[in-house]
Amino acid sequence: MPAEPGVSFLFELAILGIFPGAIAFAGAMDLFTMTIPNKISLALVAAFLVLAPIAGLGWSEVGMHLAAGILILLIGFAMFAFGWIGGGDAKMFAVGALWLGFDHLLDFTIYATLLGGLLAIILLIMRRMVFPVWLFRQDWFGRLYHQETGMPYGVALAAAALIIYPQTLWIASLY
């Protein structure tokens, strides 16, 4: 029996909006504040747990997605411990793995790595350039410009997740 039209529309809206919107918001937050709020990661975990059964994922598939997220969380925390990425980046990487699963984890990791490298090159070039003084009155720009603040890796993670997402079972569940 087909779902009620209103339920189907809400499900489609959730699939098309929640993960892409939240992951893009997290990337923007990292760009402008150099932090990724825990609330975003927690909301995405909760949304996954609610939407996965509606999208038709069985218990074994949900378990594999959870395993992907936990594995990447452990790897991310190790990377955080070595000072390679921030704690918010580790959690964002894990929540991306949760939603994308093992099927897309390698692609997600490769895109995030390549885009992170591109972002690093852009920041290195930018930090050697001279900009008008008024631009430094913008706190976010000053943070990006100064090398000691690091790099907003959440931007690369968000872009990688958004590249992969259209190929996932989430989008396939809409058809």
Verbal overview:
- With 175 residues, this protein is mostly helical.
- Helix content is 75%, strand content 0%.
- It has seven helices and no strands.
- It has helices at 5-33, 38-54, 59-81, 87-126, 139-145, 154-164, 169-172.
- Helix 1 (5-33) packs antiparallel against helix 6 (154-164) and helix 4 (87-126) crosses helix 6.
- The chain is elongated.
- The two termini are 16 Å apart.
- The relative contact order is 0.16.
- The mean pLDDT is 91.
Short structural description:
The chain is mainly α and 175 residues long. It has seven helices and no strands. The radius of gyration is 18 Å and the shape is elongated.
Shape: elongated
Structural class, by secondary structure, is mainly alpha
Portion in strands? under 5%
- Topology order in helix (H) and strand (E) letters: HHHHHHH
Terminal Cα span: 16 Å
Brief descriptors of the model:
175 residues; single chain; mainly alpha; 7 helices
Tell me the layout of helices and strands.
Elements: H1 5-33, H2 38-54, H3 59-81, H4 87-126, H5 139-145, H6 154-164, H7 169-172
